Amino acid sequence: MESVPEPVEAFVAELTVQLPGVRPQIEAGGEKAGNWWIDLPGPKPITVEWRPGVGFGFSSEPGGYGEGPAEIFRDPERAAHRIAQLLDPASTVAPTGLRAIRELYGVTQKQIATKLKIQQAAISRLETRGDFKIETISQFVRALGGHPEVRAVFPDGQLPIHTTRKKTKAHGAPKSRRPARA
Amino acid sequence: MLSKDARLRLFLDRLLSATPAANPDEAIALIATLLNAVEDEHSGVPANPSSWQSDGRMYPPQADMARTLPGLPGLTVYRSRGHRTLIGANGAFTIAEIHGGKVLVEKAGADGRGLPTPRDAKGA
Q1: N- or C-end of chain A: fewer Cβ atoms within 10 A?
Q2: Residue A57 and residue A41: Cα distance in Å, rounded?
Q3: B65·A39 Cβ contact <8 A
Q4: A131 within a domain of the structure (yes/no)
Q5: A68 at the B interface (CB within 8 A)?
Q6: So where are chain B's domains?
Q7: For the whole prediction, is pTM greater than 0.80?
C-alpha cells in the first residue's frame, strides 16, 4: 500500500483546521504519474489533485472530462486556505475577487495601499467594484508579489497580451539628445 | 463553438456509436480519438495536453494516469478531477462522475461483454 505523500498529509491537516467539518477522501492516482486525489464531498464538492513537483490543483466550478484545474498552488497551507475560502459558507467575500486574493496572501488593505501609494479607502472601493482596467488588476497583483498575465486564445494558437508597451528598436528607439559625432 | 456540456454529450454519443474496442489499448485510443476530434471541431481551444492548467478544453486520459486495481485483474482505472474511467481487458469501459457516481457511458467490448464485476473477478 502506497503511503500518502507528506505534502498531501500537510494539506489535509491544514484543511481540517480551516474547515473542521470537512471529511477529505484521499485516493492514489496514476501509478507512473504519482499524483494523488483529495475529494471533498458536500453541497459544493471540490476535488483537489496533487502532482509531485507541481502542487495542488483544483477549480471552484465542475470541470469537463479530463479538464485541468483553474487554480494551482505549490504550498499545501496556501492551497488549504484557498479551499477554505471557496467552501466557507459564512463568507461574504466573492471567492475569486481582489479582496479574497489579497487576504489569501496575508496582506492588509493598508499595506497594499502603501505599496500602491494610494489611500486605503481607494483599495476598499477597488475591491468592491465589478469591473476593472487591466492595468489596475496588474498593479494590484504585482503589489501582492504576483505576476499578472493576460492571454488571447484562438482555435489555432495562443499568445500573451502585454498591457504596457515596451520601446524596442523595431518600434523606433528614443532619439539621443546629443548630435552624432563624425 | 459548442458549450462544454454540449461537447461532452457529443463525445458520449460518438462513443456509443463507435465500433467496440477489443482490448484496453484500443479502448483508450478510441476515447482519445473521439474526444480530441470533438474538441478540435467545437471547443475553439488548441490542444495542449502538457499544460496542467485548465484552458477550457477537455482531454482524454493520459497513459501515466493508469492504475490497476487489486482484486480486479484486467481492470485499469484512469482517474481525472471529475470522472473515473474503467477499462477492461476485453476493451469494455465505463465513464462515471466522481461526485454522485452517475455513469455517463457504458460500452461493451468487441466480445459483447461489459466490465467484469467483483463477483466475476472472484470466480463465484
Answers
A1: C
A2: 16
A3: no
A4: yes
A5: yes
A6: 4-47+57-121
A7: yes
pLDDT tens per residue across span B75-93 = 999 999 999 999 999 999 9
Gap from B96 CA to chain A (nearest CA, Å): 10
B59 and B35 Cβ atoms separated by less than 8 Å:
yes
Chain B positions touching A64 (Cβ under 8 A) are: 4, 7-8, 57-58, 82
Judge if A51 and A109 occupy the same domain: no
Cβ neighbours of B8 in A, within 8 Å:
64-65
Contact B27, B93 (CB under 8 A): yes
| Nearest CB neighbour to A27, from listed B11, B57, B79 | B79
pLDDT digits 0-9 by tens, B26-72: 999 999 999 999 999 999 999 998 889 899 999 999 999 999 988 88
And the C-alpha cell for A76?
Answer: 499545501
Nearest CA in chain A to B5: A64
Low-confidence spans in chain A with pLDDT less than 70:
1, 93, 163-182
